[in-house]
Amino acid sequence: MAPTSSAPASTPPSSTPPPPDHSITISGSADLVADFFSYAVNTLLFLRGVYPPDTFKHAQKYGVTVYLSTDQKVQAYLQTVLTQMRTWLHNSALRRLVVIIASAATRNVLERWAFDVNLSEHHQTTPTASNPTSQKDPQRIMSEIQAIIRQISATVTFLPLLDEACSFDILIYTDKAVQTPTKWHESGPRTIPNAEQVTLRSFSTSLHNVDASVSFSITDD
Amino acid sequence: MNDFEDFSNFCAPVSSGPLPRWQRKALESSQHVNRPSSASVTPGRSKSKTPKSAKRSKTPSGDRFIPNRKAMNMDVCRMHLTFESGKENGQRPSTTTDPVSSPSSTEKHANRYKQNASSEYSAVLASSLLDIPPSASSDFMRNDLPNSKILAFGDKAPAAKEGYLNPHRVLYNQNSFGSRVRRNKFRHIPQAPEKILDAPGLLEDFYLNLVDWGSNNTLAVALAESVYLWNADTGRIEQLCETPADDCITSVSWIPEGNYLAVGTNSTVVQIWDVEKMACTRRMRSHSGRVGALAWNGPLLSSGSRDSQIHNHDVRIPNHHVATLAAHTQEICGLKWSPNGTQLASGGNDNLVCVWDSTNAGSRWTPKFRFDQHNAAVKALAWCPWQNNLLATGGGTADRTLRFWSTASGACVNSIDTKSQVCSIVWSPHDKELVTSHGFSQNQLTVWKYPSLARMAELKGHTSRVLHTAISPDCQTVVSAAADETLRFWKVFAGNDSGRSGSKSGHFGKSDLSSSRSLTRSVNIR
Asked: What residue stretches are annotated with the HORMA domain (chain A) (predicted)?
């Protein structure tokens, strides 16, 4: 829980020379998390079959195969949302990112993928002026992200089949203080009644912790 | 006032919970009796002393219940009461030294603890008693992350393509309702093949057509570089032809009269073989890609190729290439002339089915209908033999549907999701039935009733996808060739009445009828 971080932390100047070894600045850490979200959302859309598989190309990232949408409209939508998300992440205003997969016909939420973002204690206590850095080995972060992506791929074994046309949506939990940008609006959490929740792995840059979980409807059987 | 402070000091640690009986007694007594000395006693001692002094001062001598205090370990009880909340945050010492703040902090802590516990408890209780899931009652509209707001982008993500189905379906449904077939409603269909032949080297390629059963009751099978003829009457096997090692046979098709076999090759040549003389009578070059599909219409041979074109060859004349049918954009894998010879159906890897009308084609052929409802390559095509203008088509792995078209109106008159790749279709000429062959996951043949599309039987046995099927001239047996390199003969249809009575004992019917026809209606090919 990070309620004390609501004071908007200004983006650290990106021009600061990178400290020696493999230390990660707060801005670098935010970029890392934002990149992860981008790959995770794209891969989710592929793995859950929201869009036809032939509209995806595959790429190697984090040592695993990730899938990226090549559909122009999907790309444009993701680009808009994820760019805004990245800004919030840099301002430490992002609290959680939720991918909703809902039935296109009834709009019932079928799956809800939540990625909680927590700023680490270290960052909360020290003011941003002191430019906190992480000394965590990037290789370790990479392998943690890899583990999450692998786990997401493996969910196909227990998640129910999405046996209808589906749409997806991205909800972003931000601090109360954040001003709602134009074309954005506040939404309900769109949780799933009677849901089964599975907590997935988490990864940490030691500045940001990301906890993943998926909840899905278990109405059948 | 001093007394009051003493008193609050004295009772401080237990103020969070309900007062123990001895404290209530002490309270009463302190109200009545102005207690003299306990203020000066050290707090640690006062705790141990208090019960005793309170008890002594108030114990009546009547016939009331008198608890045996000696038997109770009051010190331990008290220690449990006070420490329970205070010990985690190390507030134990402060309770004694700071009389004002300590009760409040302990209280606060205890209250919070109690609150958390009780809300959790009541939620669990409510969910178990009222049968409401805990999340449903509280979380549905409430923001589950305090002090935050949830934002969503106004423009929503685009919807997936129309008619797109989740490809994971194939992972989940493995023809699960196959067991629900009501077999007793229909006639008996043997579940086991009558005969199994080995077909070593049969190419595992969805886009080819390597098996055909001619009206001379001879089965032509292309195994990689060779074409073999298996005579169903005698069981004799002959090798008809062999291509060079770098070439292979990609399609075979019997002329309806049964004396000639058209052979398409990977080297783009279409050959016509005379099976009586076992000689190649003609080689026709026109395509620029392998010839994967062949169909006869009288003396006209249509060939579909990987170059996405269909060529019509008039095999009687030297300048054989008489028409080019170009509407597909990818390899042609299915090609069938309608029984009356007026319409040609073609299916391609571009998921398209085209119907061509030969009657008003002239020199320039344009498709009469283009059906693009399939989501995968269409190899399985079959014209209904007993109803004009009825065409059955089946889609590949990504589609898995069986569709029926009226080629008079262009409407899709029927469709069903078969849950599996459709590799080929054979209609029964005498019953309103058809057989489809499938790939993953059951590699079965399915017998359907038309138009109800009830499953009459599922014929399992192949261990890999069933790529080709052909029907015998007596219309009873269907041969299936699968990627497991076997040919299996299934007695699926009842056949016509004369055949039914005539071929009770025989294996694959009599060929005298068809061979006599081939004599009377032989085609003159140069």
From this structure: 27-214
| Amino acid identity, position B135 | S
Provide the 3-class DSSP secondary structure of residue B44: helix
**Is residue A2 within 8 angstroms of chain B, CB to CB?**
no
Q: What are the tokens at B424?
A: 């080929």
* Residue B141 pLDDT exceeds 80: no
Q: What are the residues whose beta carbons fall under 8 Å from the beta carbon of B59, sequence distance 6 or more?
A: B66
Residues 6+ apart with CB under 8 A from A16: A25, A131
Query: How far is the alpha carbon of A5 from chain B, nearest alpha carbon, in Å?
Result: 11
Using one digit for the tens of pLDDT, what is the confidence trace for B450-472?
A: 888 988 889 999 999 999 999 99
Cα distance between residue B60 and residue A170, in whole Å: 73
Which phi and psi angles does B423 have, rounded to 5°?
A: -100, -30
CA–CA separation, B164 and B159 (whole Å): 10
Nearest in space to B217 (alpha carbons), one of B465, B499, B4, B419: B499
Angle made by CA atoms B197, B203, B209, in degrees to the nearest 5: 85
Q: What is the pLDDT of residue B350?
A: 93
Q: Please name the residue that has the structure tokens 């399985």.
A: B380
Q: Which of A170, A186, A193 sits opposite B149 (nearest CB)?
A: A186
B353: β partners: B347, B371
Q: Could you tell me which residue, B29 or B86, shows the higher pLDDT?
A: B29
**Closest approach of A188 to chain B, Cα-based (Å):** 6
Percentage of chain A with pLDDT > 70? 84
Count CA atoms within 13 Å of residue B403 on its CB side.
Answer: 25
Instruction: Please check whether residue A52 touches B, CB under 8 A.
Output: yes
List the domains of chain B with CATH numbers.
380-495 (2.130.10.10)
- Helices of type H across B12-70: 21-32, 43-58
Confidence of residue B74 (pLDDT cuts 50, 70, 90): confident
Q: Six-digit token pair at A26?
A: 């707060």
ipTM over 0.90: no
Q: Tell me what pLDDT residue A181 has.
A: 87
